[in-house]
Amino acid sequence: MSDATLQKGTTARFRSATEESPLARRALIGVAFIGLAILVFAPLIAVFAEALADGVSAALRSLANPDALDAIRLTLTIAAISVPLNAAFGIAAAWFITKFDFRGKAFLITLIDLPFSVSPVVAGLCIVLMFGTNSLIGGWLVAQGFPIVFAMPGIILATLFVTFPFVARELIPVMIEQGRAEEEAALTLGASGWRTFWTVTLPNIRWALLYGVLLCNARAMGEFGAVSVVSGKIRGQTATMPTTIEMLYQEYLSVAAFSLAAVLALLALLTLLLKTALEIRHADQLAATHRH
Amino acid sequence: MHIEIDEISKQFGVTAALHPVSLSIPSGALVALLGPSGSGKTTLLRILGGLEFPTSGRVLFDGQDATGLTVQERRAGFVFQSYALFRHMTVFDNIAYGLNARPRASRPTKAEISRRVTKLLELIQLPEVGGRFPSQLSGGQRQRVALARALAIEPRMLLLDEPFGALDAKVRKELRQGLRDIHDETGLTTVFVTHDQEEAMELADLVVVMSMGRIEQVGKPQDIRARPATDFVRDFVTA
Description:
- The complex is a heterodimer.
- Chain A is mostly helical.
- Chain A has 2 domains: 17-51; 56-290, MetI-like fold, CATH 1.10.3720.10.
- Chain A contains 14 helices and no strands.
- Chain A has helices spanning 3-11, 22-51, 56-64, 66-99, 105-117, 120-131, 136-143, 152-178, 181-188, 193-222, 225-231, 241-250, 254-281, 283-290.
- The radius of gyration of chain A is 25 Å and the shape is globular.
- Chain B contains 9 helices and 10 strands.
- Chain B is an alpha/beta fold.
- Chain B folds into 2 domains: 3-75 and 155-238, Rossmann fold (3-Layer(aba) Sandwich), CATH 3.40.50; 87-154, no CATH class.
- Classes of the chains: A mainly alpha, B alpha/beta.
């Protein structure tokens, strides 16, 4: 081989084994963008466009309607109650599953996943069967003046059921990967179990926990099926944002329906923005904790 | 501190990790638990540290029954196999952890903690790394930080699980001497686990050869080399 060809060979840019050709790369990126545009961006834009079809003032007027305001308030209240509860349940479940060895562990993990595989409508019906006025428990609770179904507790139960796996599912793989050594180290250094949890376990899982909580929150605010079965959709009382949107849409009040839908979408975008802001602010910590 | 292991056994389900074993470790000794994987050496170390509890038998510290003591009450400085440094804390905070975890009444002041951490960083010859995170250290540096963290609690004994396992040959030699120096300086009873017979023979005053959950032989390195008690020991130390 002559010097010239050798030189040419070494100066040419080599691709790594896992890298595709430029053409294939552009095609893949293109497919991803087209998919996103059709499935995500276009519907989102359509929602806002429909909401503003009669102008900004018409959209705002429909949102100032007491029923709409009640729905927003109810949805935020439900998220505020069920997300912290499920965060606590999720941490406890993930802790139990990853830090202890016991029989039936795989079964427990399957149980945690159950809400993902059961249709929300079925879940809602189960709650109605369990706690409805005709059931044993429900009848007694109604007699005590504490109805579950067609009331706030039922909506919270349904939301808790549907969003149960999010936090635990995010935490379990992270906690398995991290193992128990750091906790054991803290214990040998004299820390109590409680102190170990707050100073070692929780800081190590905080990002996974944040993702879990954000997903849980998004679903808690957006849940329709289970909630629509148990809530009875009483306007001003048990109608959440998603169920109100559906009712308004059925009544051909499209500006009102889409205005409320836009607010719901904005709430979701806000959580995403919050997540990104936190990631940027703590980028150095993220890098430090993820490298090994 | 004198450690007495009295007929300790450990079952994990149906498998026996340790058949009843007895061992006396004189105060201030540097002892190697030597054996292949699955020989029960790490289990024995974890039982000493209170991370694992024996199925039967007793552990005595200076003649006092310590079998029921919790891991916190043992006050054993434990160095883990992959060091288990707290990855979200700086080196300084890692070393200070044990002091900060003490109950308020016996916790040193902030200035005192800072003074002690600085002194420990000098002891391990890494005075500059206090502000760094574990991920920014080399393997050898991590091992020394783990040692400093264990020493910070003023332990009654030092327990090390494969302390040199994850290091390359050159660093390993240096750190061996480092551990020897720290042991001689502090006078702490020190037990370390290793599968490397050369390491055990070179570093330890007393070598405990283990296999299949049993102690095969206990003795000074030269005695074990000169008079292996069983075929297993002969094969293992000449390998």
